[in-house]
Amino acid sequence: MTKQREAYDRDPDATDLVIRPDRLWQRHMDFARFGGTEDGGVCRLALTEPDLAAHRHLADIALGLGLRVQLDPVGNMYLRLEGREPDLAPVMVGSHCDSQPTGGRFDGIYGVLAGLEAIETMVEGGFVPRRPVECVIWNNEEGSRFAPGCLGSSVFAGLTPLETALAVADEEGCLLGEAVQDLFAAIPEAERRALGTPVAAFLEAHIEQGPVLEAEGRRIGVVTGVQGYRRTEVTMVGRADHSGTTPRSRRQDAFLAAMNLCCRMEQALHDDEDLLRFTVGRFAVHPNAWSVVPGKVVFGIDIRHPDTATLEHSDAVIAGLIRDRADGCAVTSRTIASSDPVTFPPLVPDLIEVAAAQRGYSARRIFSGAGHDARNMSFHCPSGMIFVPCRGGISHNSMEYAEPEDLAAGAQVLADVVWQLAEAR
Amino acid sequence: MTKQREAYDRDPDATDLVIRPDRLWQRHMDFARFGGTEDGGVCRLALTEPDLAAHRHLADIALGLGLRVQLDPVGNMYLRLEGREPDLAPVMVGSHCDSQPTGGRFDGIYGVLAGLEAIETMVEGGFVPRRPVECVIWNNEEGSRFAPGCLGSSVFAGLTPLETALAVADEEGCLLGEAVQDLFAAIPEAERRALGTPVAAFLEAHIEQGPVLEAEGRRIGVVTGVQGYRRTEVTMVGRADHSGTTPRSRRQDAFLAAMNLCCRMEQALHDDEDLLRFTVGRFAVHPNAWSVVPGKVVFGIDIRHPDTATLEHSDAVIAGLIRDRADGCAVTSRTIASSDPVTFPPLVPDLIEVAAAQRGYSARRIFSGAGHDARNMSFHCPSGMIFVPCRGGISHNSMEYAEPEDLAAGAQVLADVVWQLAEAR
């Protein structure tokens, strides 16, 4: 109560809210031990032991700061700093602490630790915000254990029914609903809370996972939206034949047909402005033997762009090529996943841009190439993201690295914007 | 002795030597049960239980016919019909009874059963040849359990040292030398015999495993040689990047680089006469994930041609393209396997052609696209092969099928030629 009373007497000026870069960096190193791998990376799949341990450690820090710890039915965890007017919708910050199997030390956990740093700075400095501030750890963002990703935020924002999410099984047949019980058991003192509660605004700090900020020497990316994507699985069926005995003229070579199709797709989707991302990341040849002409190829096309019309046009181009260029093979395709681009409303991006300028950080507006929980939250409340550079743009890789000064700059801007939003009338 | 004396009194005219098509077909159906699969195919890896059982059954038939059963140190089995002049080098016929994991009912075993049918017909008809006639079951032709294939005939012909072959391990770490002991144990009454003994001539009957004979309506392929091959493994290393965040201009996409390289190889190796066989049968993308630009691709090129000079030219073309078209990736290549073409000396092919004509079978000369034990034996003695059509050219597949009449025609020509060779002065 002393601190709260003291805070009432202060002028809540965000310039006094200075985060501690050393603590922020040390926390990253501490959390890298949960699921740490020999090559310096992290394997912390959603709700596995290392992920539960990371949640437990976050809850311990929060309880030590006097925050409330809450869990919702889909396994999202909230660390809540009560506001002067606790009935107001909170400002929410956060990200996720699960990782890819070959993850790094910054993807996801940075947004959580930056949010926690902002709150801890407020607590230490006696800043009591008007609105509550919540640091959220969204469940199962990566989708490596339970597909698809961003499930926790999707359920919170009402985009996926709770029952659907809880019924998703991992490769061992364990349901998300069962794994969430493990989380409840790991943090028995957590309060239960509801999904879809009102939120004043949502902010997510994240490493860029791309090369642009580093290449341009910027500290802060003011994220204006998240590009959309289409994932299409193409199956080409020819005929498996003996590679030594079957003349070219009698072959139905699914590999050559798929290769020619991919070549034509790449040419047809070439854009001079280099905004369209065309990737064939999955490609499987059957039976994959030296002496057998491939009878079947299954490959996956991932296309991303900030603009829905371009995505739809690309879909049509691909469908046309599939129709025309099967080279004697039977070809089928199906959409595996699809997500339209989202542009954040200007409120949060504008505040981020101003805060970065006030702190003297070089910033630029940037569209997110990767998907994030903030995309889901943008359907629920004003949302935005802060990017910081990562070395070489490398992510989902044990080599992932971000400079301590860049992490600190992003956390500082986050703290400044959260404070403004939490104080705003 | 009665039969032998009777035979001495006969005019050994091959036209009297008429094989029994019904027995030959029934034997194929009987042997398909050793390792038979639910889809009608055969999985009979070298010296596994089903292969040992097939050897045992062959030995039983041979012993019932009064043949000698012999095993050599590398696990080749010989069913020997003694000749009137038993010290002469024998005429040898045969093939193998092991199969691919997804094998059919005719590959290999046909050459064994056709050879046995020829011998059984001689025994039943009281034909006693001047030279001994041996039906050989070469060990480990397919190479699916112990790599490489054609090991038994290679050791017999002195192309591979015995110790090298016996030291080859399967995937479970079992050595060929250990597995051969299982064969010795399965057929305890077999005599032991030496490797590399003199052979007057070797004949192998086999399904074509290609589409030519069927398409042209021919019953008999007079095999004039076995084409050579080169297997090259190419590794392209780019950089794994996030597919959503990395602009095209910053990518080192190993998949696109490999695709472009394969396209150019296919174009550069196009021959109007359709003799060169260019196959990319193996192709693996790493890490093979939707949202990761492939950082590495490993693929395998299999090239075959009847002519050594063309193979060497193709090797040079491929090496040149690999050098020039890496598209920013690091590329390495290595030769995995190499085999020069073999042309059989005219003795055996000419006899086959004449015998087919005398029986009224439509025949054509044909080069073998696949490798066979007869290739190895051609370094040891005059050798040749008889091909019969198989449906759709399909082999190494449970759908493999050959018409009873075609199998009978091939076995009849085999019997005729063996008799002539065995009688020849």
Task: Please sum up the structure shown.
Two copies of one chain form a homodimer. Chain A contains 13 helices and 16 strands. The first copy, chain A, is an alpha/beta fold and 425 residues long.
Break the fold down into its secondary structure elements and pairings:
The structure is a homodimer of 425-residue chains.
Chain A: H1 2-9, H2 21-31, H3 49-64, E1 68-71, E2 77-81, E3 91-96, H4 109-125, E4 133-138, H5 151-156, H6 162-166, H7 176-186, E5 191-192, E6 201-207, H8 212-216, E7 220-226, E8 228-237, E9 241-242, H9 254-268, E10 277-286, E11 292-293, E12 296-305, H10 308-324, E13 330-339, E14 342-343, H11 347-359, E15 363-368, H12 373-377, E16 383-388, H13 404-423
Parallel strand pairs in A: 1-5, 3-4, 3-6, 6-16, 7-15
Antiparallel strand pairs in A: 1-2, 2-4, 7-14, 7-16, 8-12, 8-13, 9-11, 10-12
Helix pairs in contact in A: 2-4, 2-13, 4-13, 9-10, 11-13
Organism (chains A, B): Halodurantibacterium flavum
Keywords (chains A, B): Hydrolase
Pfam families (chains A, B): Peptidase_M20
Provide key terms for this protein:
disordered N terminus, 425 residues, 13 helices, 10-stranded mixed beta sheet, Alpha-Beta Plaits, 22% strand, homodimer, 4-stranded antiparallel beta sheet, alpha/beta, 16 strands, 2 domains, Aminopeptidase
Describe this structure in words.
Chains A, B: It holds the Pfam family Peptidase_M20. Chains A, B: This is M20 family metallo-hydrolase. Chains A, B: It comes from Halodurantibacterium flavum. The structure is a homodimer of 425-residue chains. By secondary structure, chain A is α/β, with parallel strands linked by helices. Helices cover 35% and strands 22% of the residues of chain A. Chain A folds into two domains: 2-227 and 341-423, Zn peptidases (Aminopeptidase); 228-339, Alpha-Beta Plaits, CATH 3.30.70.360. In chain A, the strands form three sheets. In chain A, strands 1, 2, 3, 4, 5, 6, 7, 14, 15 and 16 form a ten-stranded mixed sheet that branches. A four-stranded antiparallel sheet of chain A has the order 10-12-8-13, covered by helices on one side. In chain A, helix 11 (347-359) crosses helix 13. The longest helix of chain A is centred in the C-terminal third of the chain and has 20 residues, at 404-423. The first copy, chain A, starts with a helix and ends with a helix. Residues 1-11 of chain A have low confidence and may be disordered. At the A-B interface, strand 9, helix 9, strand 10, strand 11 and strand 12 of A face strand 9, helix 9, strand 10, strand 11 and strand 12 of B.
